């Protein structure tokens, strides 16, 4: 059985050994850099940087393809919307549609941004254990005065980690629901408007049932939402500081173009 998207893939690579706080900070920095970049040279450098990180991680390409595949329809939609509805120099005419050069450029930029965000997020989740992500988020949020808001850093970290953990389960449930409905004679390509309720309603019920079962499991194990010890003893090493420093120089280099 293939692994769901955004799931952890055990390994012993350089990226696997980095502190989760380093990877969280790196993903946030790369996300900001992805939205600040406007030149195609910058996007090319970001994709090249991702390929270099992938080679260091030792992960197969299928891991990242599965992360992008569920969003391909949405990415294609925003690309076509920019291509046909952005004013500028017309490239060609197709009935009432007039794709423009500026629309093509904007569509490529937006598509590249979404793809890069998905790829970097998939790289972090594939090289970081979910419990380590929780511990890293909690350590980052711990200095903040969250008690004034009636919440603790551990509670926020737990909620964020549950969201990350539920994402691959959601995609897995979509495939299972789709297969179950197809076995009952539902053909999704014939009438999409009729098949959407047949997919969405069982999906929502299944997700609500999974959330309720998770809440019961946490309560039965004595979850109180307070700070607890962790199996991960976080300690920033030389390689972590070197990685962050290299990322800062890389970001400064990209922003020049």
From TrEMBL:
Stretches that traverse the bilayer: 40-65, 71-98, 110-128, 148-171
Name assigned to this protein: Energy-coupling factor transporter transmembrane protein EcfT
Keywords, in A-Z order: Membrane, Transmembrane, Transmembrane helix
PANTHER family in the cross-refs: PROTEIN ABCI12, CHLOROPLASTIC (PTHR33514:SF13)
Entry's Gene Ontology cellular component terms: plasma membrane
Native source species: Methanosarcina acetivorans
Membrane topology type: Multi-pass membrane protein
Pfam families in UniProt: CbiQ
InterPro entries: ABC/ECF_trnsptr_transmembrane
Major localization listed first in the record, in broad terms: membrane
Localisation: Membrane
Key word Ribonucleoprotein present: no
């Amino acid at each position: 059985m293939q692994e769901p998207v955004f799931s952890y893939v055990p390994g012993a690579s350089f990226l696997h050994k980095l502190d989760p706080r380093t990877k969280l900070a790196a993903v946030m920095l790369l996300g900001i850099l992805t939205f600040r970049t406007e030149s195609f040279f910058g996007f090319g450098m970001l994709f090249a940087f991702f390929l270099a990180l992938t080679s260091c991680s030792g992960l197969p390409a299928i891991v990242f393809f599965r992360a992008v595949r569920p969003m391909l329809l949405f990415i294609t939609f925003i690309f076509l919307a920019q291509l046909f509805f952005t004013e500028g120099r017309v490239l060609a005419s197709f009935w009432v549609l007039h794709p423009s050069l500026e629309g093509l450029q904007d569509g490529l930029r937006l598509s590249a941004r979404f793809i890069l965000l998905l790829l970097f997020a998939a790289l972090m989740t594939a090289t970081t254990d979910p419990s380590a992500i929780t511990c890293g988020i909690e350590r980052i949020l711990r200095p903040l005065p969250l008690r004034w808001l009636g919440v603790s850093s551990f509670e926020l970290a737990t909620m964020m980690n549950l969201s990350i953990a539920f994402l691959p389960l959601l995609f897995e449930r979509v495939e299972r629901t789709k297969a179950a409905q197809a076995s009952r004679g539902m053909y999704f390509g014939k009438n999409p408007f009729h098949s959407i309720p047949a997919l969405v309603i069982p999906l929502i019920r299944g997700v609500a049932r999974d959330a309720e079962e998770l809440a019961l499991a946490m309560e039965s194990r004595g979850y109180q939402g307070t700070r607890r010890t962790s199996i991960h003893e976080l300690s920033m090493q030389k390689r972590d500081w070197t990685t962050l420093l290299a990322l800062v120089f890389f970001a400064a280099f990209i922003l020049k173009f």
